[in-house]
Amino acid sequence: MLLDKPVVCGPVNPGAIVSCEVYGFFDHSAVVVDHESIVELHGSGLVRRVSYQRFIQQRSGEHFMVACSATSTPLRQRPEETVKRALEWVFHLRGYDPLSNNCHRFTWHCLTGRDEPLTTFAEFNQHLRQHFQQTVRWCRWEALSERSI
Length: 149
Fold this sequence. Notes:
Elements lengths: L16 E6 L3 E7 L4 E5 L5 E5 H5 L7 E5 L10 H11 L13 H10 L8 H12 L4 E4 L1 H5 L3
Antiparallel strand pairs: 1-2, 1-5, 2-3, 3-4, 5-6
Helix pairs in contact: 2-3
């Protein structure tokens, strides 16, 4: 996870991009679709809508991160379109492959409508940086740590 130091992010609204660590070796990304759930591409290839708790469950379970600006404001652009694209895929299979059709590619598609191969979290970050035309800072979402998720 590209994080210089943990910082608290502001309110996280639909259309925000989130990530969590997977056993400290990988990063998993998805889209916030409302104040209770996220849409993700699961490793089975199924696109599913899950609670915040389920998103980090059976992964590291410690850090829930949000793509933010330098001022720790969650980055969003056309959130209604991002959420709509994510929800259109729920309960569909995408033929998951960790290198060519992964969660980063799905999250990027939800954000932009473009289906481009993204192999690594670093590539995903580079695309986000270019898309938002600013540095992406991954902020710890403290609001989730304070409540029982």
